[in-house]
Amino acid sequence: MKLVQFMMNTGKIRLGVLKGDKVIDLNSHANWVPNNLVEFLHEHESAEKLLNEMSSSPENLSYSLSQVHLLPPIKKPDKILGVALNYRDFCEQNNLAPPKEPIVFSKFASTIIGPYDRIRHPKSSKAVDWEVELVAVIGKVARDVKAEDAFEYIFGYTATQDLTAKDWMQRNGGQFLLCKNMDHFCPLGPYVVTKDEIPDPHNLNLKTWVNGELMQNGNTSDLIFKIDHLVEHLSGVMTLLPGDIICTGTPAGVGSTKKPPTFLKPGDVLESEVQYVGRLKNLVVN
């Protein structure tokens, strides 16, 4: 099942299920249904089963994809958690030793934009880099979860570009807060795919194209810390809430490693894809 948040010409956010090229509007007749996925996950522990039942109702209205504007499928999570240096090939390309435990940073919800929205290039940076990532979406409250139980707490997956202002990373002593949290630095989507549709989250291809040129071509099998390990590690420190997202890291091929280094500029078209999860396409603008 593919969950989307979308908007019609009314300007109201709606929650839907994508079936083929049709968007099933879950808010079209049931007034008790929240119009966002985070709230739905908070209210219903058996969210997947209920959403599946609701999407089959003959009372639902549906629209073609061409009639709607897809929004980020997760809009205001309590937490956006990123993991740095989590691919072996990325560490090798940057001549860095693989970390002994996850290097975790946070992003703010204000960075999130939709899968086809424009990325506003910040005036304050001249080195905006791309980083395609698989994102795990938490489905229920998770605290002190063991790795062997971790996938019980995963609702599904989506894709992101964890954009990074590499010049701000250097000027701030290597800290991640400012370089990761500029406006529009988290394109997300195009939908959340429930975990039952992903054969193996640790064997997914990830790709980035800039103006049609392939820049990143990796696979989640190269993850240093797998998703179950990340859930155990993070939930041992803080309570993970429904709708929280874990950005699991990026493979080799970012712009800062090219010779000479290459970064995003206004006019560039950034495309990002995670196998079985979906593809984003974002235009960079002034």
* CATH H level, superfamily name of the largest domain: Fumarylacetoacetase-like, C-terminal domain
Q: How much strand content do the residues show?
A: 25-35%
Task: Tell me the major beta sheet.
Answer: 12 strands, mixed
Give helix and strand order, one letter per element, not per position. Answer: EEEHHEEEHEEEEEEEHHEEEHEEE
* Overall geometric form: globular
The number of strands is: 19
The CATH class designation of the largest domain is: Alpha Beta
Average per-residue pLDDT, rounded, comes to: 95
Instruction: Report the total helices.
Output: 6
Throw out a few tags for this protein.
6 helices, alpha+beta, 286 residues, twelve-stranded mixed sheet, single chain, 2 domains, Fumarylacetoacetate hydrolase, domain 2, five-stranded mixed sheet
General description of the model:
It is a single chain. This protein is globular. Strands 1, 2, 3, 4, 5, 6, 7, 8, 11, 12, 14 and 17 form a 12-stranded mixed β-sheet that branches. The relative contact order is 0.20. With 286 residues, it is of the alpha+beta class. A hairpin with a 2-residue loop joins strand 15 (205-210) and strand 16. It contains 6 helices and 19 strands. It has helices spanning 37-43, 47-55, 88-93, 166-171, 177-180, 227-235, and strands spanning 2-7, 13-19, 22-25, 61-64, 69-71, 80-84, 103-107, 112-113, 119-120, 128-129, 132-138, 154-161, 164-165, 186-194, 205-210, 213-219, 245-247, 269-274, 278-285. The chain folds into 2 domains: 2-71, no CATH class; 80-285, Fumarylacetoacetate hydrolase, domain 2, CATH 3.90.850.
